[in-house]
Amino acid sequence: MEVIEAIVIQNVDAEGKEPTASSSVESDKTKAEFIWTLQATWHLVNTRLEMDQAFEQPVCKKKQLWQVVAEKVNAKLRESGVTGITVKAYECDLKWRNMLATYRKNTDRARRLGVASVHWEFFKAMHEVLGKSREEIEAQRQAKLSGTRVGKAIASKRFTPILPTPPATAAACISRPPQDILQLYMELQERKLNMWAQQKALEERKIEAINNLAQAISSLAHMNSPQTSKDGH
Questions:
Q1: Mean pLDDT throughout 199-211?
Q2: Is 0.90 topped by the overall pTM?
């Protein structure tokens, strides 16, 4: 049986250098890290899934929520007879991230090969909570409310849907009669003709100005030619 599981590895010295003072502190921290047994992992999964709605809130303090998760896991471990070791909030967070990565890989495998191909022991419990679509969650919420007073009160009320108000321009175009549309078209054509006439008049003025300039230059040249001939004599 093939089980896909992702593991986050920390504090690995890839270059083989001697540990410094900070790395020795980190190594001591690593040695003191909590060892996740199967029992402790199940406690984490069940606790985190029970608090999934709290974690999904738009505004929530994840650090405080993970502290609550760690306290609940430690309490369950003590109830099981495990004493002398405690798990910290950041360790629960890190372990859950690893499990989420494993869950997503197994979810992809289930889509491609079917659920029977997934043999990871935590997949079913996590998929029952994390694999639900929004429609399924809403349907379950409505089913829970259906037998309560709140659900009956909501079902007894008739709500009128609030439709969006159409833009004023769109309403004007829809309510405009055909003759008004024809009149608007004629006005636009008249404006185009007026603009074309103004542009033509401007072009004619330019041509007239150029002709006047050419005549002035020609007359100035004629006036200078006799004077030049006299100077030559």
A1: 87
A2: no
